[in-house]
Amino acid sequence: MDRSFVITQVLGFVIHFSIAYFNGLLVRHKGVKVNYTRKINHFMLFFLPIYLSMYLTYERTLASTILAMCLMAATLVIYIKPVRQRVPAIATAFLSFDRPEDRPHTLLWLSTQILAATVIMIPLMIYFSKVGMLELIYIPLLINGFGDGLAEPVGVRFGRHPYKTWALFTRKRYIRTLEGSAFVLLVSSATILLFRDSFTPVQFIIAMAAVPVLMTLAEALSPHTWDTPFLYTVSGISLSGILMI
Q: Comparing C-alpha atoms, which of 94, 45, 95 is closest to residue 72?
């Protein structure tokens, strides 16, 4: 195994945990909303590997990418209740994404979402790689990273038109806002525009007309905290269909 790959994974985990710990301190001692610290974690999870890749180079293959995704999902095991009850630092880091309204399902929802997203993303990467369009994998990643990542803070700050959504393993209903969903539409449109050179003119027109709307509906109708698997699935199906045109 490439030494730089191992260093990247270890360093990424240490940095991400340190940021989660610092955010947990903000929640505990400064009263910062978990809605915000959770999204800081979200962005670091997305951008940290990109940043580290600028300094730690190794051959990025489909296999190494899949392994990195699986390792990321596996690290969540440190947050299980028996561990965090015995390790104060882990309990503090857990506070940075443990929204009060999500309890007692916080870790269950987070872990199953990451596992489902990984299972969905792997065949998408294989397919896009096979047809020579691997760069399109960044479309769902960017929409999820920026659109869904900022939809909740936008909704919390500017939301004036709430609507209810469902969640797994509970009958409780949760609130989203039209303003947050509109931000997903905006980011989706900008992302398709960014990748316009990857499509033929006809494909680009169809993608601009269909993908932003489909991604917005996927985010709006997905279960609470389970947006990512739905966004990956809808984007994968729609982009695959567009490539066949």
A: 45
Tell me: pLDDT of 80 over 80: yes
Buried b (16+ CB within 10 A) or exposed e, 175-185: ebbebbbbbbb
Residue 163 main-chain phi, psi, to 5 deg: -145, 160
* Closest-CA residue to 143 (of 210, 207, 109, 192): 192
Residue 105's pLDDT is: 94
Half-sphere CA count of 14, side-chain side, radius 13 A = 7
Please give the model's pTM, rounded to 2 decimal places.
0.87
Query: What is d(CA 21, CA 88) in angstroms, rounded to the nearest whole number?
Result: 10
Show contacts of 49-56: CB within 8 Å, 24+ apart: 49/8, 49/12, 52/8, 52/11, 52/12, 53/8, 56/4, 56/7, 56/8, 56/11
Q: Would you say 56 and 49 are in contact if contact means Cβ atoms under 8 Å apart?
A: no
Closest CA to 16 of 62, 52, 54, 48: 48
